Amino acid sequence: MMSAAPSSDPSLDNEWKEWKTKFAKAYSLDEERHKRLVWEENKKKIEAHNADYEQGKASFYMGLNQFSDLTPEEFRTNCCGSSMCRGEMAPDLPEYEDLGKNSYLTPGRAQV
C-alpha cells in the first residue's frame, strides 16, 4: 500500500545534505522526513519571494538559514522567548530623550 504523505524531491538531496552540514543539523530517523519536507516548503517560499524581488516587487532578498527547517509555529515556540518577538512592548523602557537638546553631550575631542 502506498503512503498518501508527500515525499521529498530527490533533486534536492545534495542541497539538503549541504544545508544540514553547514548548520550542523542532525535528526532522528522519525524527525528527518518531517524536517526535510518543512525545509523544502520554506525553500519554495523563499524562491517565490526572490523571484518577486528580482522583478522589483519585493524590497529584500531571502535565503536559507539555520531556521529553514522550522515551521512558523516551531520558530515562535523555540526561538522567540523575548516579549518583543511575541509582539509585546517592554513596559519598563524609559521615555525618549534627545540628549543633545539639553547639552548633556559634550563636543568630541581629539584623541592622541
Automatic annotation (TrEMBL):
**Pfam families from the entry?**
Inhibitor_I29
Where does the Cathepsin propeptide inhibitor domain start and stop, copy by copy?
A: 16-75
UniProt-listed InterPro entries: Papain-like_cys_pep_sf (IPR038765), Prot_inhib_I29 (IPR013201)
Which SUPFAM superfamilies does the annotation name?
Cysteine proteinases
Which superkingdom, per the lineage? Eukaryota
Family label = To the propeptide regions of cysteine proteases.
Quote the protein name from its UniProt record: Cytotoxic T lymphocyte-associated protein 2 beta
The record lists the organism as Mus spicilegus (Mound-building mouse)
Q: What is the lineage of its organism?
A: Eukaryota, Metazoa, Chordata, Craniata, Vertebrata
